[in-house]
Amino acid sequence: MAIHRRRHHHHNTHNRFRYLIPAISVISAAILILYGFISLLAPSPDHPHHLVRRKTSDDDSLLVHSLFKVPISGGMGNDRSLWNTRMSKFYFGCSNASNKFPKVETVTYPNRYLLIATSGGLNQQRTGITDAVVAARILNATLVVPKLDQKSFWKDASTFSEIFDVEWFISHLSRDVKVIKELPKKGGKIWTPYNMRVPRKCNERCYQIRVLPVLLKKHAVQLSKFDYRLSNKLETDLQKLRCRVNYHALRFTDPINKMGQKLVNQMRKMGKHYVALHLRFEPDMLAFSGCYYGGGEKERKELGKIRKRWKTLHSNNPDKERRQGRCPLTPEEVGLMLRALGYSKDVHLYVASGEVYGGDDTLAPLRALFPNIHSKDTIAPKEELEPFSAFSSRMAALDFIVCDESDVFVTNNNGNMAKILAGRRRYFGHKPTIRPNAKKLYRLFLNRENTTWEEFSSRVRTHQRGFMGEPKEVRPGRGEFHENPATCICEDPEAKSKLESLPRKFGKNNLIDPTDESLVPDQDTENESEPLDQDQDEDDDLIGPQFQHLVNDTSLDDDPLISELPELEELLSD
């Protein structure tokens, strides 16, 4: 009987499984069909803002539906107006000396030698080298090839001749300033120059009063920490000399130039145009700015710990910093700005940046908007970069070349690399250089969840008028000369008459065709072109207007913040 009951039980179990398996199959098929249907209705990954996370506290949040949807394709990547400034054909760089500028042989006195020691990263040092040539001319002295800063935050032991072509530098300036490689010996012995420092933004008279008497007595003077030691306002021939140094005499060495051109060629192979982005979203930069990006207690602790390095920094209100346009845009916000301006998702982006705070997670929204993101590390074999990788200035030089050669350059801060490239791109044809109007864009980003894409993109284009690298966006004499070399930019004789005779209007959606000569700058552009520093003194922009309120001094030599940690301005410089 027991055996019979076991067999009967086994038979019943078998029957149940026989009907259960088809039932499971039917249910599974139904689930798969339902999943496929939901997938069709779900937003594309290219719509990262279809659902937005509205912050309610650091720990909890609520998903809400939004009107804001980034188009899957969208943009006008091949539109000529995106890759040219509309009035650039009427302007050109001009830096030749006038007939009134005496020849070097007639103004250089014997036994007068000027040496300088630069400060900061590559681009801050570049400003020092440029100004040193002009200072030597003011003092009628022979310039000794400048010493590069080897002890700063950047810790690069490179010499001048390892970064720049020293022979070209000397020969190209031979009609303006006598330059020698090293100080001659004095009585057969090594000559130690007298060391001194000049105030920031020192003009011609300042050098003649402060430095010349010492030079006449000591015959060899070294100016230390030589950065921003020359006024923005000099007479025309000296300003043009500045341009000849910066844009013609300072040329990278052959190895750097060749590697830089390889990177440029790689970017060109990927598409007809490319955009270079100087992101500046490193932990140190964010910590110093005092801005908050929604990362909760973790972000506050991490950046707060770094911020303690600057003990004299006062605490600030992160919301106020954002409202005032003093915070770098997030990578996502930069991407949204570019898409709104008309750049399509298939555009190739070259990102010049150090360590990005948050790493790949922070870059992910930018990558969703622009999948084709590159850096020198991704487009060049490791072995080709190896000769440069141990030297921060040489690696910065490679980024400089790729950004300089880009069709569009986007800067996310106002450090020295951004300033020098902006000025250089103005001088060589006004290639588009986009500076985010952070003060206006802040409100737009804040309320974007209640805005349609069409309205958002239209308002971005409106806010960015005067921030796109067009001629005369910035008034002559305004800001740093290296950023706005107005003295060295000449106007086509026909340009002014053409502009004055044309009707003043904008094209549809503010996207300007540079070939349409009926389009001229908006009347409000000048008023909006410098929202970050409109209340500042014209020369008061050493480390960028978004950080001036933290330093609050035009002469930073005696600032306790600077003297406590000199790396502050070095950190912000490039």
From TrEMBL:
Superkingdom as given in the UniProt entry: Eukaryota
Biased composition (Acidic residues): 523-542, 555-574
InterPro entries found in the cross-reference section: FucosylTrfase_pln, GDP-Fuc_O-FucTrfase
Biological processes per GO annotation: fucose metabolic process
Pfam family, one: O-FucT
One Gene Ontology molecular-function label: glycosyltransferase activity
Residue span of region Disordered: 501-574
Annotated transmembrane regions: 20-42
The entry's keywords: Carbohydrate metabolism, Fucose metabolism, Glycosyltransferase, Membrane, Transferase, Transmembrane, Transmembrane helix
Family: Belongs to the glycosyltransferase GT106 family.
Protein name, entry field: O-fucosyltransferase family protein
UniProt organism field: Lactuca saligna
Lineage: Eukaryota, Viridiplantae, Streptophyta, Embryophyta, Tracheophyta
